[in-house]
């Protein structure tokens, strides 16, 4: 963040005050921009090749695909001059792809585990001597219906914020996880229906789960 801010502010000073002090053939802005970019790219590469936590991978990919090309280089004060320089990406393509794969693998596992924990909690709630919650006057499982959908949507949104391609890839992966989760949910629910007919709140629990179906559709 500090490097990005420094680069943006310094190049803005070059555009506003320094370019006009030199003949065009000196290519003053291009030299400054390339030096800053090369240093920034070397630091990004150094970070990418070190051991990174998931949140660091996400932040670095955000810089490579989103913040640097779209917010820094398209800044209204810099865009015209930067378009002449053709700086390239902050990371080599191979390294960027490697980070994307790590991020996608991690995010897929995170969402999958989140869905599994949610279902486990829901099954536990069926076993309790407790009436299901009501949502807008109807029995419904807020935990299951809303949490599952939010988990998947949030995962997709985070990925799309990196880039459209990364978002599309994660969406394809999660679209495979959702049916697997729904099958587990269906099997658990069928098991409950078969074995828990004497449960005090058997009927409200059935209604709550039936009402979840519309949300999942």
TrEMBL record:
Any one GO MF annotation of this record: SNARE binding
InterPro entries noted in UniProt: EXOC3/Sec6
Biological processes per GO annotation: exocyst localization; exocytosis
Highest taxon of the lineage: Eukaryota
A GO CC annotation given for this chain: exocyst
Protein name, entry field: TNAP2 protein
Source organism per UniProt: Sclerurus mexicanus (tawny-throated leaftosser)
């Amino acid at each position: 963040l500090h490097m990005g801010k420094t680069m943006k502010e310094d190049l803005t000073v070059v555009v506003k005050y320094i370019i006009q002090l030199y003949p065009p053939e000196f290519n003053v802005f291009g030299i400054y921009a390339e030096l800053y970019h090369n240093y920034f790219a070397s630091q990004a590469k150094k970070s990418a090749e070190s051991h990174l936590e998931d949140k660091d991978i996400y932040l670095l990919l955000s810089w490579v695909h989103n913040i640097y090309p779209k917010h820094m280089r398209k800044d209204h004060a810099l865009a015209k001059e930067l378009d002449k320089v053709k700086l390239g990406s902050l990371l080599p393509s191979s390294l960027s792809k490697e980070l994307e794969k790590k991020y996608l693998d991690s995010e897929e596992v995170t969402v999958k585990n989140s869905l599994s924990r949610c279902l486990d909690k829901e099954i536990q709630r069926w076993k309790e001597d407790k009436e299901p919650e009501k949502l807008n006057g109807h029995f419904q499982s807020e935990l299951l219906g809303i949490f599952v959908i939010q988990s998947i949507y949030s995962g997709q949104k985070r990925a799309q914020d990196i880039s459209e391609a990364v978002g599309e890839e994660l969406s394809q992966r999660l679209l495979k996880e959702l049916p697997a989760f729904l099958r587990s949910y269906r099997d658990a629910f069928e098991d409950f229906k078969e074995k828990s007919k004497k449960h005090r709140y058997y009927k409200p629990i059935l209604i709550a789960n039936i009402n979840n179906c519309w949300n999942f559709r």
